[in-house]
Write a structure and sequence with these properties.
Helix content: over 70%
Distance between the termini: 14 Å
CATH superfamily: Amino acid/polyamine transporter I
Order of helices and strands: HHHHHHHHHHHHHHHHHHHH
Shape: globular
Number of domains: 1
CATH topology: Amino acid/polyamine transporter I
Structural class: mainly alpha
Low-confidence stretches: none
CATH architecture: Up-down Bundle
CATH class: Mainly Alpha
Strand content: under 5%
Mean pLDDT: 93
Radius of gyration: 22 Å
Number of strands: 0
């Protein structure tokens, strides 16, 4: 399925920025800092760095390298290994597409808050701090009482969702030649905003207390499986592997391009961004603790609570320039989300469809954006939070990503095999990876991913209903996995027509 005229990155720097943009996302700002705080500070960082070498780097080299080798996206890679394996390339395509249907809705939240921050619409001072949660759940989401109460779309979120899909279309319908330079601008601006937030955070009263909590080391935590689950899961979810797109991005590398060096730069650039973001987050947490005289556990939260409740609380309490720093934070959040969203759209979904069916880029992009928007409407409703960023996320961004990642590494490691890939990537790289890589891909990465899936998922979700939801709602997780697997076999069995750029 290799193509002689495969599109390519205009510059190596464009590829690096595009790869970093795909990896750096919302989780860098709202998940990593909390996990570090909750799992022993420095001890978590040690486990995280170990995980980068035994899981993150080998897995990313696999996706970059295999994409480059076959000059194709994920389905073409596994179809190239053997036609019977093509379905395994389609399963992560479904993962990427479904993630993007609700990920873009979360980005619509950030747009809403960027606008609301201009007037600090949730209120100033302690009154604003106390009303931040009600503003998020009541005013922004208009959240219903549960997944059975879907309700109707929230107009502001629907408009924001439409804007985001239009932006995604404009970025990707010309392919890598536009994605690369756009990613460079987006990431430089996002890092600039993040640096501003760090400087402001560390100069706030109480910042030192928050930073001490962030970095305080409890070495005994290394004996806890919770710490290793947190570290390995963050690596899996943050690097954007297991979502098909990195195969496509790798396929755009020029024939003499360096895979190994690019993988290392991407992994450590993503990790450095996460660590740096922790200074912005926990300096602000310390400020809130002092300003409101509340304990750390009442302030430090993960996921949407950190971004859309804790941060607005801080904005309300700032001694000055409240609106400005609110706009900067949510603009930063929007930019890092955008770079991941168009990665999921193009590398994860559009490129595979073009490679398989020979559809034109413009029409394929338009089709994916329209369908993605249509599905996303469900997640803008009053019950959307339950179905998108929670139930569907559990299905695809947790189980789907981990299972397909483990299976992919097993097939590449044992069938392709890993030694052949290692020789290929070493032939054009500044430095060579050794035989340790084979062991990681064949054994360690699959075991690490299965550990996360079993320890953090199956053990809890099979005997109990996920998240305390009714069993029928929790069963949607398993239904999604089964349906996407069946559809992957169907797509894998269809005739390939070849890509038309």
């Amino acid at each position: 399925m290799a193509e002689v005229t495969r599109e390519s990155w205009g510059k190596r720097s464009y590829f690096i920025f595009a790869a970093l943009g795909s990896a750096v996302g919302l989780g860098n700002l709202w998940r990593f800092p909390y996990l570090c705080y909750a799992n022993g500070g420095g001890a978590f960082i040690v486990a995280y760095v170990i995980g980068l070498f035994v899981i993150g780097i080998p897995w990313l080299v696999v996706e970059f390298g295999m994409g480059k080798y076959f000059a194709s996206s994920a389905p073409g890679v596994f179809g190239g290994i053997g036609k019977k394996w093509e379905w395994l390339g389609w399963w992560p395509v479904w993962v990427a597409f479904l993630i993007n249907t609700y990920y873009t809705v979360v980005m619509a939240w950030t747009l809403r808050y960027a606008v609301s921050s201009a007037t600090v619409a949730w209120g100033m001072g302690e009154a604003g701090a106390e009303g931040a949660a009600d503003y998020f759940f009541g005013t922004v989401l208009k959240l219903s009482g549960g997944p059975a109460e879907i309700g109707s779309p929230v107009l502001e979120l629907l408009i924001g969702l439409a804007i985001i899909w239009v932006v995604i279309f404009l970025v990707v319908f010309k392919g890598a030649k536009v994605i690369g330079p756009v990613s460079q601008v987006v990431m430089i601006v996002a890092w600039t905003f993040l640096a501003i937030l760090v400087v402001r955070g560390v100069t706030l009263p109480g910042a030192a207390q928050g930073l001490n909590s962030y970095l305080e080391t409890d070495w005994s935590s290394l004996a806890s499986p919770d710490l290793w689950f947190g570290a390995f899961s963050q690596i899996a979810f943050s690097l954007s592997v297991g979502m098909a797109g990195m195969y496509a991005y790798g396929s755009f590398i020029k024939r003499k391009g360096d895979v190994n060096n690019s993988a290392f730069i991407t992994v450590f650039g993503d990790s450095a961004t996460s660590f740096f973001a922790g200074f912005a987050v926990f300096s602000t947490v310390g400020f809130i603790m002092q300003a409101l005289n509340v304990p750390l556990d009442e302030v430090a939260t993960k996921s949407v609570g950190l971004a859309f409740i804790t941060w607005p609380v801080a904005v309300s309490m700032l001694p000055g320039a409240n609106a400005l720093f609110g706009v900067i934070f949510f603009s930063c959040l929007f930019l890092v989300g955008l770079s991941s969203a168009y990665f999921l759209a193009y590398g994860g979904t559009i490129a595979p469809l073009m490679d398989k069916f020979g559809w034109s880029r413009t029409r394929t992009t338009a089709g994916v954006c329209i369908v993605g928007f249509a599905i996303g409407i469900l997640f803008t409703t009053n019950g959307g939070l339950y179905w998108g960023p929670d139930i569907l996320d559990r299905a695809v961004s947790f189980y789907g990503l981990l299972i397909t990642g483990a299976l992919s590494c097993l097939v590449v490691g044992w069938v392709f095999p890993a030694s052949r890939l290692r020789e290929y990537v070493n032939s054009t790289s500044d430095f060579h990876i050794g035989a340790w890589f084979d062991v990681m891909v064949k054994v360690v990465v699959p075991l690490g991913l299965l550990f996360v899936a079993i320890y953090g998922g199956f053990i809890q979700d099979i005997p109990n209903s996920y998240g305390g939801y009714p069993r029928w709602a929790s069963n949607a997780i398993w239904a999604t996995l089964v349906i996407t697997l069946i559809l992957s076999f169907v797509l894998g069995g269809m005739k390939t027509r070849g890509r038309k750029d």
